[in-house]
Amino acid sequence: MNTTHTSERKRTIIYVAVFLLVAIIGLAYVKWIPYVDKSITAITTQSIGDSILGDPADAGTFSWESTWSYVVTYFLAVWKAAVLGIVLGSLVQVLIPADWLMRTLGKTSFGSTAIGGLTSLPGMMCTCCAAPVAAGLRKKNVSIGAALAFWLGNPVLNPAVLIFMTFVLSWEFTLLRAVFGIVLVFGISYLANRFAPQPAPEELARKVEEAETAIAPEEGSFLSRWLKSMGRMALFIIPAYFISVLLIAAVRPWLFPLLDGASGNTLLMILLFAIGGMLFVIPTAAEIPIIQTFMSAGLGTGPAAAMLITLPAISLPSLILVAGAFPRKVLWFVAGAVILLGVLCGLVGMWVM
User: Fold this and answer.
1) Of 40, 104, 172, 306, which shows the fewest CB atoms inside 10 Å?
2) How far apart are CA 7 and CA 268, in angstroms?
3) What is the pLDDT of residue 184?
C-alpha cells in the first residue's frame, strides 16, 4: 500500500511539474516577453497603439465590412492566448490533483477566493482567454468564488496593463482601476459564493478524503485523456466564441455613443458606457487606447473611468464561454456587479479627475 501511495505521489509531482512548465513557457511566449517590449513603448511614447474600435465618429454607422474587419483584428490579437487558454484549461482537468485543488480552492471561504485571485496575476489573459481555465477549475470542484476570482483577476488586475495605463493615461486612472478591481476580484467573487449551494464542512471533508484515497487512475493514457478533454472543450468554445464575437462586433457601432461637451460627462453617459463596456469584447489592454481615443474626441472622465472596469472584466462572449461552469444567477450577479462598479468608478472619475 505504501509503495502504491509513493508511486501515486511521484506521478502527481510529475503531472504538476508538467502543468507548470507548459504554463510558464506558454505565458512567457504569449504574454510576458511581448509585454516587456510594450512596456518600453508605453514609457517612451505614451501610447500602445491605435484603438481597436476605430474612429469614434463612426458610432452608429453599421457595415458588414467594418464588422468583419473587427472580428479579424480581434482574433489576430488573441488567437495565441486563446489556444493557450484551451490547452491550460484542459490540462488542469487531467494533471492537477483533485484533492489538492479542493483543499486549497474548493472552500467558500475568503481564503480560497484570495488564492484564486492571486494565482491569476501571472496569467495576464483577457476575459475570454481565461474562461477555459476557469471552466476547467470548476470541473475539478473549485469553489465559485475561487474560480471567479481567477477569471476576473486575469484581465482586471493584470500588472502589465496597470503599467501601460500609468504612462499612457495617468496614475489616477491606474489607482481607480486597482481599487475597484480589487473590490471586484476579491469582494464580488467572494459574495458570489452565496448564490450557490453551500456544502457542509463534513461534506467537503468527505470529498477531499475521497479524492485523496482515489488511487485507481482514470481510464486511458494521459495523452488520450488530455486530447479528449481538450477536444470537448474546443468543440464548444471555438464556435461559441466566433459566433458571439461576430454578434457583438455587429452591434459595436451602437454600444458606445459619443456626445460632445458637457453631455459627454453625465450620469447617463456613465451608465451607457458601463453597460456597453460590460457587453463588448476586447483583447488584453485594448481598453487603454480605446479610452485615450474617446477622450481625445470629447468623452468625459466619468464614462472613461467606467470603461476602466467594465471593458476588460467580462464580455458577452466570455459569459457565454463560462455559462456551463457557473450557475446562471451567479453570472447575472457578476454582470450586474461589473456594471455597478463601473458606474461607481465613473462617478469617482467624474468628480475628482
Assistant:
1) 40
2) 62
3) 98
What pLDDT is stored for residue 221 in this prediction? Answer: 76
The alpha carbon torsion through 199, 204, 206, 210 (nearest 10 deg) reads: 120
- Residue 10 C-alpha from the chain's centroid: 33
Nearest of 80, 111, 127, 113 to residue 309 by alpha carbon: 127
Taking a C-beta distance cutoff of 8 angstroms, is the pair 70, 63 a contact?
A: no
Q: Residues 160, 121: contact at Cβ < 8 Å?
A: no
Q: pTM of the predicted model, to two decimals?
A: 0.91
Residue 65, number of CB atoms within 10 A of its CB: 8
CB 78 within 8 A of CB 126: yes
Q: What letter does residue 280 receive in the DSSP assignment?
A: -
Q: Specify the pLDDT at position 216.
A: 44
Secondary structure class of 95 (helix, strand, coil): coil
Amino acid making up residue 226: W
- C-alpha distances in Å from residue 134, one per residue of 143, 208, 288, 346: 10, 20, 25, 28
Q: Which residue has the cell 481599487?
A: 179
What distance in Å separates the CA atoms of residue 290 and residue 274, rounded to the nearest whole number?
14
